[in-house]
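seq as requested:
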Amino acid sequence: MPVTYRTIAGKVDPVVEQLLRDLVQAVNGLERPTGSAETQQVIVQPSLPFPSVRVAQALSGRGTASDPLTVLVDGSTVTVNAQNQLQAAGGSGATGATGAQGPTGPTGPSGATGPAGSGSFITGPTGPTGPTGPTGATGTGVTGATGSTGPTGPSGATGTGQTGATGPTGPTGPTAATAWMVRYATSDLSATGTALTNIPGLAFPIGANERWMLQAYLFYDATLTGDIKIDLLGPTGESHRRAAFGLVSTVTSNAGDLAIGQGQGSAGLLFGGAGAGVGIAAIYVANVLNGATPGTVQMRAAQNTPDATPTVVKQDSFLVAHRSD
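struct tokens:
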């Protein structure tokens, strides 16, 4: 005969129910039907390998004094009351000792991971920017030590800018108060007429109202006919007193009487010649006082009488000038 059981809802908790169901399935492989509102009975055949006492023990404590749990074991009806006592219908037997708790069974294997959900996320719109927070306090960290000087960088390329245009010439500055000046004839002067001509290089600048003293040493040769005359010319308003020393105009050689000429003005002082190629010297001194107009003081020379053979003032001639104001 198959084993069956019936329960009244609420009388047996799920753990006990599972124990009973496992017991029945082990016997005849049947699933228990759903419980009905009847007095719960458990029927166990005497020929089953499960002890009747084990069935009763499984239900111990599930009854109460007012509502005992009735169990049919091996054809006899027993009651499980609130004191966990198993009693037969004809009288209560002695309560057996509680058995030792069995060992905990091993943990079952983990179930397979379920498939990933098919849902998708929709990104919401960006929220508005929050207000700017207050400015933090100024830091007061300690200044670090100065690092070492780095290596000198390479020199930059040389610029190639264009040269600017030459500016206009500035006005002539005032004449410097030079104490002494020396001037040399830069070339020979060859004169073949009586017009006084500048001796190249024998000149010096003079400022307004300045006074200069000069000495000129002239080396020349002239024919007996041509002779030589010497002159000094300055700016407008300039005046000078001069004196000169040289051979008289009647000599026929470079040895003879000296002529000493002196005076004021610009008329040339006359000295003689000893013949073409015969060297003679003359000395000319002057005290020069200039007016309000600055300019140049220039030595000049010419023939006294025109002659085809020129009168020549040599390049070695020179003058020395000294400012005395």
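The chain has two helices and 17 strands.
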